[in-house]
Design a protein that fits this description.
- About 20% of the residues lie in helices and about 35% in strands.
- Strands 6-7-8-3-9-10 form a 6-stranded mixed sheet, sandwiched between helices. It has a 5-stranded antiparallel sheet with strand order 13-12-11-14-20.
- It folds into 2 domains: about 10-95 and about 170-250, Rossmann fold; about 255-375, OB fold (Dihydrolipoamide Acetyltransferase, E2P) (Beta Barrel).
- It has helices at about 60-70, 110-120, 125-140, 155-165, 185-200, 210-220, 235-240, 245-250; strands at about 20-30, 35-45, 50-55, 75-80, 85, 95-100, 170-175, 205-210, 220-225, 230-235, 255-265, 270-275, 280-285, 295-300, 305, 315-325, 330-335, 340-350, 365-370, 375.
- The chain is globular and about 75 Å long.
- The two termini are about 25 Å apart.
- The longest helix is centred in the middle third of the chain and has 18 residues, at about 185-200.
- With about 375 residues, the protein is of the alpha+beta class.
């Protein structure tokens, strides 16, 4: 998985003196006896593109609505720019929200939709018109100013909604599944545009999504939610390469999870006995692990490769190819081991229409280095 962002030498959340623009302190939201959000604490810094990621029902939209002021926490506090806004109504918060439905006024032109919030605030007409022109240019819909929403494509309506949300120059923009209604190609194109706009304006973006690729592509950091709680908060690359739990590993991308228990550890090299793999496995792990501890070895399919006698492959398993998925740029192979456990690995399709070197029922030996996998204890 790739990201549109380049890491900076020191990100704002790494700076010891950096104060977060949003501080969520032990926030819970209960509907009857059900906790939609259960004791979440998060710091989000100015200029971040921050994603709340997780499956339906994990609490991400409820948390976003509490940031906007549309829902009040049952417990806990929310601070924005140092001010306690826990009980502050939406219209008095320095935030704006872009809804999944876009919620455009059907009887208004594009320009009037963008200007609506500015007019409600009493901005003088000349300034209002200038701001609308800026927003139209920013989202590249200058020529659509006079059209009504029903005369626009889905992607164009999405741009209008974004322009309207940005017109008031909020400190924070909240986006609730903003790309969900777009087709795949348009969604990918819009991801680039959103990141470029966010970096140009320097506004803090907080996006809710269930799409892991969307979150990985656009975010500076991701909070992965599970059952109303935060499972892990990290930049995309770290979340992908170093998941802290089986849930995080399985949710982000494809991964092979192989159960076993610790046999021994010498310095940072851990030896794992795995009945699933039918052999012992090795992994580099910095924390001490007691012998007998149940663990899960996690290795991404792209880290697994055909054994060609490479001495660096500390782990080797053999099996039979049972499934092949051709995806154009890569092929995914499912290999069944003698134990019945299946391992995935991928190969890039470098040459067009090349003779397929591997086929169903082929016997293969797979391997991966000890430093290209991880070990999970939860």
């Amino acid at each position: 998985m790739s990201s549109l962002r380049q890491s900076k030498p020191e990100e704002p959340w790494q700076a010891p003196e950096g104060e977060p623009i949003i501080r969520i302190e032990n926030v819970s939201k209960r509907f009857g006896e059900l906790y939609a959000v259960d004791g979440i604490s998060l710091d989000i810094h100015s200029g971040e593109f921050f994603s709340l990621l997780g499956p339906s029902g994990c609490g991400k939209t409820t948390l976003l609505r509490m940031l906007a002021g549309f829902e009040l926490p049952t417990e806990g506090k929310i601070y924005i720019d140092g001010q306690d806004v826990t009980d502050v109504p939406p219209y008095e918060r320095p935030v704006n929200m872009m809804f999944q439905s876009y919620a455009l006024f059907p009887h208004m032109s594009v320009a009037d939709n963008i200007a609506f919030g500015l007019k409600q605030e009493g901005m003088p007409k000349a300034r209002r018109q200038e701001r609308v022109r800026e927003m139209l240019a920013l989202v590249q819909i200058d020529k659509l100013a006079a059209r009504k929403p029903h005369q626009l494509s889905g992607g164009q309506r999405q741009r209008v909604a974004l322009a309207r949300a940005l017109a008031k120059h909020p400190k924070i923009l909240l986006l609730d599944e903003p790309l969900g209604a777009l087709d795949k190609k348009l969604r990918e194109q819009t991801q680039f545009e959103l990141v470029n706009i966010q970096e140009r304006l320097g506004i803090t973006f907080i996006i809710v999504t269930h799409d892991q690729e969307e979150a990985m592509t656009m975010s500076s950091r991701i909070a992965l939610l599970r059952d109303g709680r935060v499972e892990q908060v990290d930049p995309p690359r770290r979340l992908y390469e170093y998941p802290n739990s089986r849930y995080a590993a399985d949710f982000i991308g494809s991964i092979n999870l192989i159960d076993g228990h610790v046999l021994s550890q010498e310095e940072n090299r851990v030896r794992i006995r795995s009945e699933e793999a039918g052999c012992d496995l090795e992994v580099i792990h910095g924390q001490p692990l007691l012998a007998g501890t149940p663990v899960t070895l996690a290795v991404r399919p792209e880290k697994v490769r055909l054994d060609s006698g490479d001495a660096q492959l500390a782990n080797r398993v053999s099996g039979v190819i049972k499934e092949i998925a051709y995806l154009g740029d890569v092929s995914i192979y499912h290999v069944e081991l003698a134990t019945g456990k299946r391992i995935q690995f991928t190969q890039s399709n470098v040459q067009a229409l090349a003779e397929q070197p591997l086929s169903w029922e082929d016997e293969v030996v797979l391997g991966w280095p000890a430093n290209s996998c991880g070990v999970l204890t939860q």
